[in-house]
Amino acid sequence: MSLLVVGSVAFDSVKTPFGEAEEILGGSATYFSTAASYFTEVNLVAVVGEDFPSQHVNFLKSRGINTDGLEKQDGKTFRWKGEYGYQLNEAQTLETHLNVFESFKPLLPQSYRDSEGVFLANINPELQTDVLNQVTSPKIIACDTMNFWISGKRDALLKTLEHVDILIINDGEARQLAMEANLVKAARIIRSYGPKHLIIKRGEYGALMFNSQSIFAAPAYPLENVFDPTGAGDSFAGGFMGYLLNTRNFSESNMRQAVIFGSVMASFVVEDFSLNRIKTLDYNEIHNRYREFKQLTHFEESAEIFRQ
Ligand code: AMP
Hints:
This protein has helices at residues 28-36, 54-62, 125-132, 147-152, 154-161, 171-178, 183-191, 232-247, 252-269, 283-297, and strands at 2-6, 10-16, 19-26, 41-48, 66-72, 78-83, 92-97, 117-120, 140-143, 166-170, 197-201, 207-210, 215-218. It has 308 residues and is an alpha/beta fold. The chain has a single domain, classed as CATH 3.40.1190.20. Strand 6 (78-83) and strand 7 form a beta hairpin. The longest helix has 18 residues, at 252-269. The N and C termini lie far apart (56 Å).
C-alpha cells in the first residue's frame, strides 16, 4: 500500500550537548519518508530550493522513495536551527527560514492521488486540507502539528482534524490543543475534534495511544547514547504508518505493534545527527530492536499474594 507524506525537506543546523552540525539534511518529510521506506512505498510531496544538492535527492531515491512530488523552486531551501540542553526532550528553535516553503502550494502528481495512506506532517493546516482534497480514497489519514499552528491557525487546524483518523503529537501540544493539563482528559477532548486515535509522544518517556477502547503505553528504548533527538517524532510517525500500510491492518492490536515499530525507528534516529543512523539500517536490526522492546515490557500475571 502506498503512503503519501507532505511536509518539510530542510537544511538543519543543530547543537546538542554532545556536538553540533551545520546545514545537514533534515525536515519532517525527510525523516518520515526514510523511516517509512523500510516498510512500504512512499510518495513524497515537498519543496526545495535551487541550493538542494542532487546527492540528497539520490539518497531518497535510493531508499525507494518516490520523489516525483518533490518540487524544485527558485530560491533557497527551508532552514531550521535548533538547540537542545541536557534535557533532550524539547528543542529550542533558534531560527526558522521558510524560504521556498513560504509560497508552497502542494500539487499532487496524478500518480499519487490514489495513495492509500496519508501523513500530513507539521505544516500549515490549510495546506494539510488542500492535500486531503487531492487524494481520492485514502484508507487512513494521520496528522502532526505544532504549537505555532495550534495558537496561530486553530480554526484551520480544527477543520483538518475533522478528516483525520490518527493525530500524532507531543504532550505539550496535546495540552495546548485541548486547553487541558491532564493528558487523559486532553485525549478525550482531542478525540472529540475528529481523530479516532490519538498518539501522544513523550520523548524519553515513550508514547501513549488513546482510542475509544483503550489506552496503550509504550516505553522509549533505554538508549545509553542519545546524540541528537531531531527527527525522532517524524521517524516515529514513519515507522508507525509504514508498518500499518505494510500490514494493511488497522485493528487495535496491529496499531499497538505499529507504535512499537515507530518507537524502534525513533530510537535509531536519535543515535546520530541527521539521518546518518537510519540511512542504512537492515531489517534484522529493526526486528531485533522490536524484540528487545517486547522483552522490556513483558511481565507475568500476578500470583495470589494477597491476605484476607
Ligand atoms: P521532530 O521530529 O519534531 O524533531 O522534527 C524535526 C524536523 O522538523 C527538523 O528536521 C526541522 O527541519 C523540521 N521543522 C522544524 N520547524 C519546522 C516548521 N515550522 N515547519 C516544518 N518543519 C519544521
